[in-house]
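Long-time lurker. I teach an intro course on protein structure, and each term I like to show students one example going from raw sequence to a predicted 3D structure in token notation. This year I'd like something fresh instead of my usual example. Would anyone be willing to generate the tokens for the chain below so I can use it in lecture? Attribution to the forum is fine with me.
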Amino acid sequence: MKALPLFALLSALTCTNALAPGSALAQTQVAGLTLGQPIEKELAGRESHSYSVDLEAGQFMFAAVDQRGIDVTVTVFGPDGEQVGWFDTPNGSYGIEGVGVEAEVSGAYRLEVQPFSEDAEQGRYAIELERLQAAATTPEGKIDQLFLAFDRLGSAGAAVAVVKDGEAVYQRGFGYADLEHGVAITPSTVFDIASVSKQFAGIAIAMLVKEGRVDLDADYREYLPEMPEYEHTVTVRHLVHHTSGIRDWSSALPIAGVRFEDVISFDDILRMAKHMQDLNYTPGDRYSYTNTGYNLLAEIVSRVTGEPFADWMEANVFEPLGMENTHFQADHDKIVANKARSYRANPSLGFQNVANNLTAIGSSSLYTTTEDLARWVLNFEGRHVGGEAVKLMLQQGVLNNGTTIGYAFGQGVGSYKGARTVSHGGSWAGFRTQLLRFPDQRFAVIVLGNFNYFNPSAMANAIADIYLFPESDVAERTSSDTDAPEVVVDPAILDDYIGTYRLGPGWLLTITHEDGRLMAQATNEDKFPMKAVAENRFWVADYGASVFFPRNPAGEVTHLGYRGIRAPRVELFTPGPDELEEFAGSYYSVELDTRWEIIASEGALVARHRRYDDIPLDPGEVDDFTSRTWFLRHLKFSRDEDGGVSGFLVTNGRVQDLRFDRVE
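-- Reply from a regular --
Happy to contribute to a lecture. Here you go:
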């Protein structure tokens, strides 16, 4: 008995705080499912509803669970009581959970619906058995069944293409490109492919390198002299491999009050780069993904060739490859025929439009179809465009310490189930995209979606499973501690581990001892139990990883280990009202030309900007504060020589130590 690869894979990728299948829950009587007859119910934390359906061997069943205010998971058990599937997609409390099962034996199958979180508030859902049919026997049929959750009226969806042995062997659309006008997705539907665009800037630079017109090891200011000069040189190669230290505009501009639905032009991005005061780190020391670097590469192409980047790409790449429906969008108001709109899920409104006013050419903003991307994929074999530059695109970056990273020229080089892969994903507005290639197998998958909770990477992997790995296990273990038996640890030893540890800037992990068990709580997250698998090693199922507590020669616990991070133990502070007043004031960033007010009110600090609601700040270490707002994740206040608060540094995922000075 087996579940379709998609759903098992999705569950492996998205499970964080879910109840484990088989948990002790309040169950209702088993209800039978009848084809085409939905059942609507209410569900809350620590409850479980069971349904049954009779299947014959070789039959395929598809059931849809429509979440209407509660995030649920579905576990399927075979006639022998063994679990055959666990299904969850990253769509929160709204949208369809698709349950697809191919029966290997005849009998009664049981579907158990339960909340994703045991403390979930009551919400409604509807379950309906939508399809009973023969299980697909061809790869194409299996893909069709894989996408049944999106192949429906009133749903956004996806376009899919499969390229194998030098030709496109599968192309189809599912769902709707335009929900307002009822326009279905087809292989000729035009999508914004977001960051999958980067490989096209990559081939442009690679072609100019092979022509001797661009030097990868030259200072990028040789081509863009108006850009800032830093203490350490930023090269073109650094831009290509995301090792430049240049801040990512998508993480920096929100600090200045820019919202993603605003018009964000290519010139806006170049202006931000021109006014940068500092790098995140010494170029070449680290890999840190930055869209800005690829916008700068596009501008370098324009300066070197004397043509607008979009025009050069049209003449030198898209037209020669016959990519007639592909272009870089340099004007957000341009009308594009057959364009998919982008959507997000709204619990009360269903699908909602997501504005897309971005023209970030080079890093994003490439509009294309699965048909055209299939032509692009075939060029990696034939090299009709680019020649030797196509080979250069696989050259991976190397850090200053000699470490080779997985990023090449707009492509990630990696592996899947032992096979070499070259891939890239994309995410912007409601678009979610993935291009996955297996060069040694002459195989590629293209998946383009137009709604925010769609997971194109999981879909692409599932399609690869159908063609390349039909007998492999989909869900792979991430740690040998997963099923390790729990051991009893002396409570006094557990007390040694209590404390707060710094995983990174503004990212703390607090360990507490409650009811004989350690609990882990990261910054702005829920508290999760830790299972002792050894005296000093604990498995945290919700993290999918172990936490290790080593001791120094004196027997003290000074840090913990987590996913390769050596996290030191730190002391927190609890500022009183007078101490909070020290931080209150107005702060200005020259780099972003923006101002934030820090307000002390009712025993707490809030950060205030004219374009946002007030953002509460939580104290961490001395002079450090964090927030639940992603772009203002960590504020570290600085003091002058007299001990007065003089400014703060902002750090988030792709911005480090962006300076604000106190002006009042």
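Some talking points for your students: The two ends are 68 Å apart (CA to CA). Residues 596 and 609 are 5 Å apart (CA to CA).
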